[in-house]
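Annex B. Sample input.
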Amino acid sequence: MPRARRPYRDREEKTPRRARTGHRPGLVEPADRERALALTHVSRETLERLDRFVALLLAWQRTTSLIAPSTVSHLWTRHIADSLQLLDLAPEARVWVDLGTGGGFPGLAIACALAGRPGAHVHLVESNTKKAAFLREAQRLTEAPASVHAARIEDFAAGFEGQADVVTARAVAPLKSLLDQCFPLLGKSGAMGLFPKGQNAELELRQARESRTAKAWTMNATLAPSRTDPAGRIIVIRDVERTRTT
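Annex B, continued. Sample output.
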């Protein structure tokens, strides 16, 4: 039998020391919401949607693993603010595609913030049926401009016929593997890629460019600092092309 693929671990399991001591597991720290809102300011209407989203996520989290249990106590900073910071890197973007949305990050959080903006829409791509069901309920409850696609990333990317301004993915796969899966999206529409990463962002970028196999990638890429993780970086990618090595 083929060996099961190990889940990609980038930043998802990292837990600040304060969240591991002096706080009951499974509960959000009371001050965490205020810290997140200080990092990423939102409108009153957006905050109301985010509150509904978080309440639903915590209810589902009791029976379905949507986020790492170690991150529940600081859900607002670790997930909400971490997602919303991407908006400032693409302020004019209307159509987003979020790959491997999982518990709603960053895609559904971004959709909550984009509600009311003309032409805004976020495609949430998630192959896990339970998580896709959660995303549909969260979209219905928040009335965010989003649609859920219960599909594998490579299948969605190959069949998507629309135009995208931004493609995102968070804690899904190393950059090289991610580009292999989503290149049809980046190549067809010329979309910007926004990929939050941990302290190994520069290494992942170098590995994507310098491949010993038949495929490598060229791109215009920069590393933007993360507001929520001092060691974290957001890989900002444009003009992705596949190159052949000899």
